[in-house]
Amino acid sequence: MSPAAESAQLRVAAPETDRAATPAAAAADSPVLATARRARIAATELAPLPRTPRDTALLAIADALEARVDEILAANAEDVARAREAGTSASIVDRLTLTPERVAAIASDVRDVVALPDPVGEVVRGSTLPNGLDLRQVRVPLGVVGIIYEARPNVTVDAAALCLKSGNAVLLRGSSSAHRSNTALVAVLRDAVAGAGLPADAVQLVPGESRESVHELMRARGLVDVLIPRGGAALIRTVVENSTVPVIETGVGNCHIYVDERADLDRAVEIVVTAKAERPSVCNSVETVLVHRAVADALLPRLLAALTEAGVTVHGDAAWGAAGAAAGVAVAEATDEDWAEEYLGPHLAAAVVPDLDAAVAHIRRWSSGHTEAILTADTAAARRFVSLVDSAAVMVNASTRFTDGGQFGFGAEIGISTQKLHARGPMGLPELTSTKYVVTGDGHTRG
Amino acid sequence: MSPAAESAQLRVAAPETDRAATPAAAAADSPVLATARRARIAATELAPLPRTPRDTALLAIADALEARVDEILAANAEDVARAREAGTSASIVDRLTLTPERVAAIASDVRDVVALPDPVGEVVRGSTLPNGLDLRQVRVPLGVVGIIYEARPNVTVDAAALCLKSGNAVLLRGSSSAHRSNTALVAVLRDAVAGAGLPADAVQLVPGESRESVHELMRARGLVDVLIPRGGAALIRTVVENSTVPVIETGVGNCHIYVDERADLDRAVEIVVTAKAERPSVCNSVETVLVHRAVADALLPRLLAALTEAGVTVHGDAAWGAAGAAAGVAVAEATDEDWAEEYLGPHLAAAVVPDLDAAVAHIRRWSSGHTEAILTADTAAARRFVSLVDSAAVMVNASTRFTDGGQFGFGAEIGISTQKLHARGPMGLPELTSTKYVVTGDGHTRG
């Protein structure tokens, strides 16, 4: 059967029969709620589809991105021109900018998603119960996923591709600085999805550029199944505080590296410096280094030299200040703000601690729960650190930079969850699903 | 090492070093927040403990419940006397009442929990990455679990036992009608936990009987990791609307049975009647039956006779009304309120539908997403129903009453989730955990 016929065959609930889509509710709809309601209906059509029609739509998206690159670049050029006029920083303009090569890379990423295993329909557990009932727990799509994100237009396509692959409808709420680019991209995505016989409303941009439209999205409980804010701490806090829709917090990474008394100091210098300087703008870069006092005299001068050479400013405690003075390196005085800060830039907070437990206590107080690392040759110290630190990822003798869906072998990533419910750490396709129990019997009654 | 020594050895963060427990925050605490803060500290101590000290504490609880039964019954007798004076219904008084046998059964249930597999430390997935890093995803406790529940004092012990078994601290917020019973039970639990060397604050009653104390609990984000309301739809809606703490919705069951045109009608009568009448007060009992019109003439008279004999009032559509008139059985006229209602009593909504898709459309509009069943001999119909119905459990030729942690072989159940995030359907011990990634290398750097 063709994907279109398959989709048509599985179309059951007319909008007016779905509780979420009653005429009375629809009449009162704002543009945001109307969009969410269309997404709900599209999700109902997507959920029962097998893999092939979803993959067909994704391949159509990849082809369409390449075929319509001029249209996409023209819209993007307008966003870039406006950003330049507004005096936006060069690094943000760079993130915003699309080129033919970048669009080709985005299309290639979509094809990579097609190749990933289908999470939908996976049997998570199953057994035959003592009474003969067959029990299966099966992965199903979440339904409608809302993504709130900032600058980069590639997220628009990445998020839509991951949601489609996992059978979900997606509501995209990008930043106003990328509005023209996102509008052009979503038009391409919707045409490709519809051309493949799936509902175009599986991919929608949330209308309106005001804060009010985000607020409406956050209150659309019953229409939206989960909201994933991707961005700075302030955005995430706003969503968490105001949303009645369930939220998955992502991406705020105040990550720590603790250098134990039995660490290999050569490796420690290399790990700390690369974890900070290789790509400081990402959430898994290190923001604070904690050094056991037994190795401080040997390590601090070397770390200060290497960090300075890498262009990193150290915000240190008294011990680091003294080491800086001795080495002729300027060390800023660390305050509570530094311990709490996710710099995302060439700054590093630094302290000397009396022992492992003090490092753990510091991490418990200040960490955002993303990733912490211990560097040590001591197995007991490694075990204790892993046991006591409650973060999404705990590294032993490895850089914090490895917390990443691609590095973990998940093939793709919708974000890195720093919360404990539903998903924790890098979120791949399975984290975009729920499950349902399917129980099959021969007329079994209970009692 | 003794459990007490083990616990002491793993005690690291002094309260003042934990971010959640800074003196500034503590100074502003209300009684509810102070309780939550103590729970947070207890959770930090519990999390790294292996199985043995947790099981030891649970066995101590079971013994203490038996040893101190007189004290528990005396407190319970006061609650029961007050409830009788207030004119509470006999069925609620019965739920509230403890007897020596019931306390013994509660203690026995705690021993059953001891015997269950430990969810903490289970490796959910693991691999060696291409670069040689060892990746493990390991179950860890959620932290602090808040339970808001009604009448029955056995929930106090059940919930505490499941939370302790899974390494969590628990905040218990029962109903004021069971306040004396709960206070006595929690005193017994805390003494037993402390006697086993674990922090007594792992089990606490939320102080205050006002709604304000529930409201404070719902806003204690950062101190409480998850709230699980167990009770009626109104309670759950209030918590969902007002909580900044993540919530798991449980237990509202507007369950449907659809009798397909190819169902075995003898089995259909037996399944529908027992699913309604065997124990109508539970969430997995059936509330609406939908009958394919091809079998309506044959089935409706039989179902009406059997339901009437079982003391069930049918609230039916026109077809059911006509069948009732022909059979001399009173059928109430069903309204939208009936389709939406979770009766939890001897009432059943009933409709005749033209086909399977109409049954699915009815379920999509009215179901609470708990459990729906199809009775059919037709494999294609069964597959279509399973595919199109999006509820926590979908039954094929089996009663809705099987959606239950005990029936599913989970050994215990903290509730039945009707939401899609984190847990869906019966929640056993694994659903009371989160995970963390543990990544081990040899000084791996990235970039």
Automatic annotation (TrEMBL), chains A, B:
Q: Which CDD domains match?
A: ALDH_F18-19_ProA-GPR
**Which reactions does this protein catalyse?**
L-glutamate 5-semialdehyde + phosphate + NADP(+) = L-glutamyl 5-phosphate + NADPH + H(+)
- Disulfide bond among the record's keywords? no
One Pfam match, given by its short name, reads Aldedh
EC number from the UniProt entry: 1.2.1.41
Which residue stretches belong to region Disordered? 1-29
Give the pathway listed in the UniProt entry for this protein: Amino-acid biosynthesis; L-proline biosynthesis; L-glutamate 5-semialdehyde from L-glutamate: step 2/2
Keyword set, alphabetical order? Amino-acid biosynthesis, Cytoplasm, NADP, Oxidoreductase, Proline biosynthesis
- InterPro entries named among the record's database cross-references: Ald_DH/histidinol_DH, Ald_DH_C, Ald_DH_N, Aldehyde_DH_dom, G-glutamylP_reductase_CS, Glu-5-SA_DH, GPR_dom
- Where it mainly occurs, coarsely classed, is cytoplasm
Q: Which NCBIfam families match?
A: PRK00197.1, proA
Q: Which family does it belong to?
A: Belongs to the gamma-glutamyl phosphate reductase family.
The family database entries (HAMAP family) matched by this protein are listed as:
ProA
Describe its function.
Catalyzes the NADPH-dependent reduction of L-glutamate 5-phosphate into L-glutamate 5-semialdehyde and phosphate. The product spontaneously undergoes cyclization to form 1-pyrroline-5-carboxylate.
Q: Mind telling me what this protein is named? A: Gamma-glutamyl phosphate reductase
